[in-house]
Amino acid sequence: LAWLMAKYKAVDSMNRDAYAAFLSADCQLNFGNNPTAQGREEVLSGIQQFWGAIGGLNHNFIHVFGNRDHFAAEAVIDYTRKDG
Predict the structure, then answer these.
(1) What are the contacts of 77-83 at 24+ separation with CB within 8 A?
(2) How far apart are alpha carbons 16 and 47 in whole angstroms?
(3) How confident is the model at residue 65, as a pLDDT?
(4) Which end of the chain is more exposed for a tag (fewer CB within 10 A), N or C?
């Protein structure tokens, strides 16, 4: 699942173009209590808004269960505030 790690490396670097490469045109993202973002541009707009509110983030994967086609990932995510 190297692509999973690469995807979250793109997320953690807050790199729009790198993250966009992992999204299909008809993707969906449900983040927290927000309405589901529909489609690549809406997902990217939402994630950029989130990135703008934080100083940084880092996904630390603990377990990945399943196989290359179907899996669940357990992670601890550290967020950095803008003031450090």
Answers:
(1) 79/54, 79/55, 80/54, 80/55, 80/56, 81/54, 81/55, 82/53, 82/54, 82/55, 83/55
(2) 8
(3) 93
(4) C
pLDDT of residue 25 exceeding 90:
yes
Measured from the Cβ of residue 43, the count of other Cβ atoms closer than 10 Å reads: 20
Residue type, 56: G
60 and 73 Cβ atoms separated by less than 8 Å: no
Residues 6 or more apart whose Cβ sits within 8 Å of residue 66: 72
What number is the average pLDDT over the span 51-76? Answer: 94
Quick one: tokens of 46? 């939402």
pTM reported for the whole predicted model: 0.87
